[in-house]
Amino acid sequence: MLSEKRHAAVIGGGVMGADIAVVFASGGWSVHLVEPSGRTRETLPERIQSGLGKLKTKGEGVFSIASRMEEIPWGEIEIAVEAVPEKLGIKQEVFAKMEGLSRAGIPLTSNSSGFPISEIGKGLKTRSRLLGLHFFMPAHLAPLVEVVCSEDTDPRLAEDVCSLMKRLGKKPVLVKKDIPGFLANRIQHALMREALSLVEQGIATPEDVDDAVRYGFGFRYVAAGPLRQKDLTGVDTQYSAGVTIYPDLCNDSSPSSYIAEKVAAGHLGIKTKKGFYDWTDQRIAEFKKNYENTLLKALEIMRE
């Protein structure tokens, strides 16, 4: 069981790690960040303070920054979150070290969006306390966090972590089986497969696909998820539509040539200023500002 010491370790000070630190600090926790890159460490105080400033919470905790995992007070740590780059070998090294440094019984969690926690923790002795703890970008604004169990995870510890996430103002979902993509990303990729197929076939432009989601069913999802929304409109209606639509949906088992060609051409989105859209510095700045402001407004609505 989690105690009231309220000290958390976050391993990795990149975009996700810094925002996860904000989540704990905004709930009054002391956060101990570990980041080996000196350049990244220098940016962390400003990034964390900026994130805290965007959340209208009263209980702000404190944070410290270290370059090595051995430097933080593991005797005080109640939960550890790994947020290092998505490379399996690196994650396995981090978990092996966390297992040796941490107190027995505390949850050791990974923010990985792709690697199963069972793979990350392979070979460790205390796999019962390993969990996926998958936040969504930006982690301090997006309410959802997935708590992912492997077949070795102690279900009582998973429930404890879900309860902790609720106290921190998040909306946890418990994923009972450690499957690729967990829960939300599987649903998201099913949508993306069809969206890309529609553009590739020339049926719609990227702009129209985006608008169809944002101003159609995506707009309704702020108020109700897909299953509850179908209870509202009628399960029989959903079934009848499925009989007609499902046989014509894209069911490719690999990413489409449309997106593969973009990757091969280096059209990776904002980072290269060309993706599904063309970007300039001004458009990027305006989009990021509007994107974050919209998320903040949506967060206020969902909190109410």
Number of domains: 2
Specify the structural class.
Answer: alpha/beta
The residue fraction in helices comes out at 40-55%
Rounded to the nearest angstrom, the radius of gyration is 21 Å
For the biggest β-sheet, the strand order reads: 3-2-1-4-5-6-7-8
Q: Which descriptor suits the 3D outline?
A: globular
CATH class of the largest domain: Alpha Beta
How many DSSP helices?
Answer: 11
Uncertain residue segments: none
Number of distinct beta strands: 8
Q: Main traits of this protein?
A:
304 residues; alpha/beta; Rossmann fold; N-(1-d-carboxylethyl)-l-norvaline Dehydrogenase, domain 2; 8-stranded mixed sheet; 47% helix; 12% strand
If you had to describe this structure to a student in words, what would you say it looks like?
- The chain has 304 residues and is an alpha/beta fold.
- The protein has 2 domains: 7-175, NAD(P)-binding Rossmann-like Domain (Rossmann fold); 185-303, N-(1-d-carboxylethyl)-l-norvaline Dehydrogenase, domain 2 (Orthogonal Bundle).
- It has 11 helices and 8 strands.
- It has helices at residues 15-26, 38-54, 88-101, 117-120, 155-167, 184-200, 206-221, 226-233, 235-245, 257-265, 281-303, and strands at residues 7-11, 30-34, 63-66, 79-82, 108-110, 130-135, 144-148, 171-175.
- An 8-stranded mixed β-sheet has the order 3-2-1-4-5-6-7-8, with helices on both faces.
- The radius of gyration is 21 Å and the shape is globular.
- The mean pLDDT is 93.
